[in-house]
User: What shape does this take?
Amino acid sequence: MKRHQAPSDRYQESTSGRSPGDSLNEAASEHHDVSRRSVLRGAGAASAGIGLGVTTTPATAAQHASRPSAAAPPRQGKTMIGVPFERRSTVRVAMIGLGNRGAAMLDLYLAVPGVAVVALCDPVKAKAERAAAKVAAAGQPAPAVYVHGEDDYAQLLQRGDVDFAHVATPWDSHFEIAKSALLNGVHVGVECPLALQLDQLWELVDLSERTRRHCVQLENCCYGRNEMRVLRMAHAGKFGDLLHGAGAYNHDLRAMMFDPAYYEGPWRRLWHTRLRGDLYPNHGFGPVANYMDLNRGDRAVSIVSVGTPSLGLAQYRAAHMPAGDPSWKETYIGSDRTISLVETAKGRVIRLEHDVSTPHPYSRINSLAGTKGLFEDYPERIYLESDHHDDAWGDFSTYAEWDHWLWKEHAHPPGTHGGMDYMLVFRLTQCMRLGLVPDFDVYDAATWTAPVPLSHLSIKQRGLPQEIPDFTRGEWKKPRPGMDSAKPAEA
Assistant: This one.
């Protein structure tokens, strides 16, 4: 796979059978006739520095972005909405990808009672060995280790003793690994984004419904303390009728993207040579989608995106990288900052931003406003008409009574990102042990990821609106529980 090849940015008509006149270059898809054999043998050999293999090269992501038609493809199985996990006393977990993210998340699985890490996979043998030593040090049996090439995850997923696979690999491998997990009867959670093409998102929705296995986006920011407090306040009507919100991933990653030891390859920087849109919408979109009950009484219907010129990475390279460095062969097309507006069926507006190429303090924005007041994060502040006056912000810390029960029980959780990673692992594995419905599902995962290809297309078309598919196929109209969960009775 040629990782430094400049991608073609042409758009073609779709041959997937999903309204070709409305599509924006979907690849010919076999997702109505997926076979276990094709998945297990299909992962191509990727270059050693990039990560686990895929059948589609990253360069084709721009080509395969697709405008959905108004009508969803025919359902191949029953909905996964409201479907609980099978109850089990121990959750047997496999970790696929053991780089920076995977290694950190492994620590949290080992910290949660009722979880056994039974298998590990990474093409870099030293990483897998270090992870296996952690498992042994935690007092668990030695896990099986899969290190024989980019597609060895396929062998792992055939084991038969894995309940849940956590995928923490480079983005271009997410779809194929999730697909393989589902076809092998394994529930799967994928780090952001779920996939990079709309036809891939639809295929994972269809596979989840056909195999009766959950495929979830591991969206840890939804489990942040502030996010969960705002969620409960919104559901209690503290902000009145909701009108608008905003979320972002504004994080200066320039030094890390040019560090070959951090993003090996370096795979993440190369996406800025392939797509122009929002490469990482999930952290901002997920929490606001929860506040507004998207897919639970409302839904995202369209997106409009604009993007700035791409200057930041080239200027950083000029200032910091020596002549002859491989990065000098790269041409960056990804907008330094993308701004998107998502409209919902109820007419609400969500603003999304993405900027990892310029200097600025970290911010996910995380705001919510309604007819009775608003909350804004970074820094956190609140203004409620019932409590505050004279246009002066209030102290959000005084609303701790609205904390979610998870944060009341785990006030000082271990791990990275202020404890939200631990909350994600704890709650996910709790749902699996107790046989509960997950807090979010494949429909949320697909919705939160759809802005990746759609923002790219909107920017290419100078801000033309793009339709967001209804991955629920009409089920969004029915209110149902989500992140604002009730504390379960432990058994």
Notes: The mean pLDDT is 88. Residues 281 and 451 are 7 Å apart (CA to CA). The radius of gyration is 22 Å. The first helix runs from residue 36 to 42.
